[in-house]
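User: Hello! I'm new to structural biology and keep hearing that structure can be predicted from sequence alone. Could you demonstrate with Small ribosomal subunit protein bS20? Please show me the input and the output so I can see what each looks like.

Assistant: Of course. The first part below is the input, the amino acid sequence of Small ribosomal subunit protein bS20. The second part is the output, the predicted structure written as tokens.
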Amino acid sequence: MPLTKSAKKALRVDRANRLINDQTRNKVKSALKAARLAIAAGGKDAKTKIDAAYRELDLAAKKNVIHKNKASRLKSRLAKKLAKSEIATVVEKKQPKAEKTKKETPAKKLITK
């Protein structure tokens, strides 16, 4: 048990912060799980679930609940799973490139002396 007044306050603050951090961690976990399940199921809402997971990861990293490199790694893994799935081909159709126009050769300059 803390003895000093400041140690007692620190304990109160730590307990309150732990509750907030646990809530943030649970939001991240549930968002990641929902995104993974949406990718595996091949649903149309996979992209929105991934965006929600990205948002939760960024917020957790901003609040220092998880490290920013861990957030980046988890986002990268989600993106890889989406790219491997069949949804990626449906969501991101490649558009044909526009044809390049031919440059006309400029008229030869007259050399006068």
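User: So the tokens describe the shape?

Assistant: Right, they're a compact way of writing down the 3D structure. Reading them back into a model, for example: The radius of gyration is 27 Å.
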